[in-house]
Amino acid sequence: MNPMLSLSYEQVPAIVENSSDAPPYQAIAVRNEAVAVQSHSASQGGDHLPGAENPLRRILQPYGWQLHSPARTKRKLLQSASSVPYSPMNVAYNGKTCILFRAKKLAIRYKNHTFVDLTEKAFGPNAPVDTKGSVCSKDKATLSLRFGDVEDLRGLTIRLQMSNTFYESAGQNWFTLDSVHIHYNWTHEATFNATDVYAPATYSYHCQHVSSLQKYDTLLVPSSHSDSSANWHITFTDFQIQAFNVQSNKFASASDCATFFTPAILMGLITSLILLLVLAYALHMVVHLKHIDRYEEHKTTVYFPRSPEPECTDKNSL
């Protein structure tokens, strides 16, 4: 019997008899045909028939019974494995891991050209990126991503300059991403300042978008309009990096770039302000109505002088 089948021929009669989906006369017919197929396949080597050509599959298919093979499960596992994100880039210097870096997407664009996606080249399982130019020290670190020739760009390299500085006011060291450099065509360079990307040195830094585009808050600012940096756009999506105090080749707790004034919080503040204005106006109207009532109360107590006619009548009587 074929071990690839999950249902044996001997189990078919019992399953057919216990099934409530098929009428009794159909169950008997299916059982008889299944037994006939069993004997016929045994005589002609039916154990080796593929699942798609097996007559038993044709018999059981109208009643919702399927013969499953492990190939279908294998395909599902491959599909689920493809959705797993790339593992972090581990950069070592002098035999010790000093930089951890990952991004869900890395894309660059020159002027109005289409974006060049470098994600697969940087984080893929067979990524050709070269990180040998990376350097680490106690106070400085440089992550060098050398991609080589990419489309029309020659010798493309992206460098991230980082520093570790002690601040007396905070009483601890802080990690800062100082600048991002794009080297291309061997002699050209575009530089972006990134001083707003920082975190405590014992933490990693995470941000949903680290980009030179305005719609992503422009954390990467062109250093000068005299060079070609103003013509470049670079975007890291789901960006996370740690350049100092890397322990056990794992990211430390992340310091996120999300600010207090997120769109949801701003909408809540605006709504609260509108409600306060409505409440203030309502209180003003209530106070004004009370003032009118008091004014009407005073207005009703009006003094009317007595008529002089009765006095004249009394004088004439005398």
Automatic annotation (TrEMBL):
This is V-type proton ATPase subunit S1-like protein. Signal peptide: none annotated. Residues 96-244 form the V-type proton ATPase subunit S1 luminal domain. GO terms for cellular component: bounding membrane of organelle; cytoplasmic vesicle membrane; endomembrane system; proton-transporting V-type ATPase complex. It comes from Albula goreensis. It comes from the Eukaryota. Belongs to the vacuolar ATPase subunit S1 family. It is a single-pass membrane protein. Keywords: Membrane, Transmembrane, Transmembrane helix. Residues 259-296 form the V-type proton ATPase subunit S1/VOA1 transmembrane domain. InterPro entries: Ac45_acc_su, VAS1/VOA1_TM, VAS1_LD. Its main location: membrane. Pfam families: Ac45-VOA1_TM (PF20520), VAS1_LD (PF05827). The keyword Plastid does not apply. It is found in: Membrane. The chain crosses the membrane at residues 260-283. One of its GO terms (molecular function) is ATPase activator activity. GO terms for biological process: regulation of cellular pH.
